[in-house]
Write a structure and sequence with these properties.
With about 350 residues, the chain is of the alpha/beta class. The chain contains 12 helices and 13 strands. The protein has 2 domains: about 5-215, inorganic pyrophosphatase (n-terminal core) (Alpha-Beta Complex); about 220-345, Diaminopimelate Epimerase, Chain A, domain 1. It has helices spanning about 10-20, 35-50, 80-90, 110-115, 145-155, 170-180, 190-205, 210-215, 220-235, 250-255, 305-310, 330-345; strands spanning about 5, 25, 55, 75, 95-100, 120-125, 135-140, 235-240, 245-250, 280-285, 290-295, 315, 320-325. It starts with a strand and ends with a helix. Bound molecules: manganese (II) ion.
């Protein structure tokens, strides 16, 4: 049976946790700050009450997020330890999935998760989750991040009882990082409840400046130069559609010593131009047969529909992603055509 909860009733989750002894927490491929934050916050919260938990990811954390899961955290990733990951998923009796709405977002882990006899819980903020794949679903797109939803769930747990100061500090820090990164540092998808969460976490001891510096202001010099190159030489603006796009090729990645996570946030940059309401960022990957597509928009333009219709993906109304099986030279024409069809002009 799938139960859905917008404002979390934690009793069904309590019931599942209380009969489980081997819990696995999982987040999505190419984990961002919200994936890492919700994964580790959930893991550390459950451990604080004595539950045995193994956090798992399909691939390693990007360098700028690695501090969130030091070696002693026990985080396993499939690319580094495939056998160990498959074994813990197989023997788990409860799997908690965070920050994704369909199992395919875990890439290589999907089959193992499906095959596992464990009960499955989803805690996520993307639209239209695959409810039938889970025993219990906490899903709402009315929050900034998976971390904001998880924060509300944790607040409702009996030992916390709505008292923020009872949340362990390291759990609070991970929740803050996920919320901070998914909102692009309080710029997007922020509601009064997001600011309340931030205020409450600051009051209980989270060092906002330290986390902001660690995650957002900790880039390499080549990454900054790559950003300059893209903005100066690669950004195309299409005023007739209020749109802009950039393509990052595999050659450029090599030239600028690209590390996973380096392009994080680049897609947002053209949205600060007056009249640009939609931005697309395409990334060519040498080891994959597709180009990664990232889409962002200002309120009033739905990039989830664009991603679903033309880019083999989906996401949120103002932030979505997908894949394109085309050589990079053909992308400008395809992007133009997709806008033509999407806007019907
Ligand atoms: Mn998220």
């Amino acid at each position: 049976m799938t139960k859905e909860t917008a404002f979390p009733d934690t009793a069904p989750l309590e019931a599942l946790i209380s009969v489980s002894s081997r819990v696995v927490t999982i987040s999505h491929f190419r984990p961002d700050g919200d994936a890492a934050g919700s994964l580790m916050a959930c893991t550390l919260f459950l451990r604080s009450r004595g539950v045995e938990v193994t956090p798992v990811l399909p691939c390693p954390l990007a360098d700028y997020l690695a501090f969130m899961a030091p070696p002693q955290s026990g985080l396993l990733d499939f690319e580094t330890s495939p056998d160990a990951v498959e074994a813990v998923i197989k023997s788990a009796d409860l799997i908690i999935c965070l920050d994704f709405n369909r199992l395919s977002r875990t890439e290589y882990l999907e089959d193992a998760i499906r095959a596992s006899k464990a009960r499955k819980v989803l805690i996520d903020h993307h639209v239209a989750p695959d409810r039938e794949d889970f025993d219990l679903v906490y899903s709402t797109a009315e929050v900034s991040s998976a971390c904001e939803l998880l924060y509300r769930i944790i607040l409702n747990m009996p030992e916390i009882g709505g008292e923020v100061s009872r949340i362990p500090l390291e759990v609070a820090e991970h929740l803050y990082i996920g919320m901070m990164t998914d909102t692009n540092n309080f710029a997007n998808s922020v509601s009064p409840s997001t600011f309340r969460m931030a205020a409450d976490l600051l009051e209980m001891g989270v060092d906002k400046n330290a986390l902001q510096f660690k995650v957002l202001n900790n880039h390499t010099e080549p990454r900054m130069r790559l950003m300059g190159h893209l903005l100066k030489d690669k950004m195309n603006v299409l005023p007739q559609y209020g749109a802009a796009f950039m393509i990052l090729t595999a050659d450029e990645k090599q030239e600028y010593s690209f590390r996973p996570g380096d392009a994080e946030g680049f897609v947002n940059l053209p949205l600060s131009i007056a009249g640009v309401n939609l931005s697309a960022f395409f990334t060519e990957c040498r080891d994959e047969e597709y180009v990664r597509v990232s889409l962002r928009s200002r309120p009033g333009t739905d990039v989830n529909a664009l991603a679903r219709g033309w880019y083999n993906g989906g996401g949120h109304i103002n932030a979505a992603g997908g894949r394109l099986f085309l050589p990079t030279e053909e992308i400008p024409a395809y992007f133009l055509k997709s806008l033509e069809e999407y806007f019907g002009k």
